[in-house]
Task: structure prediction
Amino acid sequence: MPRPAAPDLAPAVNEWFADAARPLPWRAAEVSPWAVLVSEFMLQQTQVDRVLPRWEAWIRRWPTPASLAAEPAAEAVRAWDRLGYPRRALWLHRAAVEIVERHGGEVPRGVDELLALQGVGPYTARAVAAFAFGVRVPVVDTNTRRVIARAVDGNAEPAPPSTARDLAAMSALLPESPHEARAFNAAAMELGATVCTARAPQCGVCPVSDRCAWLRAGSPAYDGPRKPKQARFAGSDRQVRGLVMRELRAAHRPVTRAEIMGIWADAVQLERAISGLIADGLAVETGEGMTLPEA
DNA sequence: AAGACGTGGAC
DNA sequence: TGTCCAAGTCT
Result:
C-alpha cells in the first residue's frame, strides 16, 4: 500500500543548506573516510560542540585506522576523555583493528561491510557510505526523523524508531542524482539540528514551511506514545561507572580496590558498576588492581 | 525488544 | 531544580 505522495522537499532544503550549512571540519572535502567514521562514532548521542575538540585531537594522533589499531585500547579510552559512552572508544578501536585485518587498512565503502564493523549500526554505516564515499543511500538520524515526521507526516514528533520504515520514508524523498542525494542526507539532518528542532522549531526561517504538513495542520501537539522517561543520572549506576572510568583514565597504573572504594559510598552499587565495566571490557582486574584494557 | 549505556547544556 | 534532549548501538 503506497504512502501518500511526499512533498518534494529536497530542492528547497538543499538550496537552504548550500548557504546555511555549518562549516563542520568533517564535512570538508579533503577529510578521509576514516576521519568521517571517527566523527560519526563520536556524534552518536553527542552534540557537535562537544565532539569538535576531541575529533581534532583524535585525527591528529591517529590519522589512519592502522595507527589506532597499533595502540592498546586503553589509549583510545583515555583519548575519548569525557565524551560519554566510553564503550564507543572500545568499539572504534576494535573497528580499526577489523578494518586493518579485513580491509587492508582502508575503510570499506559498502553498507554491508560497514555494518559488520563493531559499533557501526544502520545510521553510521549509511552516513559513512554517503558522506565519505558519495554512495546514494538514505541516511536517517534523529534529526531527519523529526523533519520527516513534521514536514511529511504532519506530526509534532516522530513515531518510535523503525529502521525499515525510516529508511523507506527517506528513500521516497531522496533525489536521484547521487550528488544531490548526498547533499540532501546532510541537509535534512542539518535542518533538524538547527531549525526544525525538538524544543522550539524556528518555522519562520524554515525553507519548507510553505509545504510542511505539520504547520499546515496547525502545529498540533504530539499525541502518540510517549518516549520512556530517561532515568535520573544523579546517583545512577551510570554515574558511578563514569566516576570509576575517570579514575582509571587518570591513573597510569593499576588502581587498588581500596582506592576504588573511596570514590563512592554505596559499596554494593560500586561493586555492580565495576562488574559491569569488566563485563563490558572497559576495565580489567589484575593482581595489582584495576586498569584500562590493554588489548 | 525494551532497557542500558555518559555527560553536559538548555530551559 | 528537575526534566528533556543529544549525528545510536548492543544485548
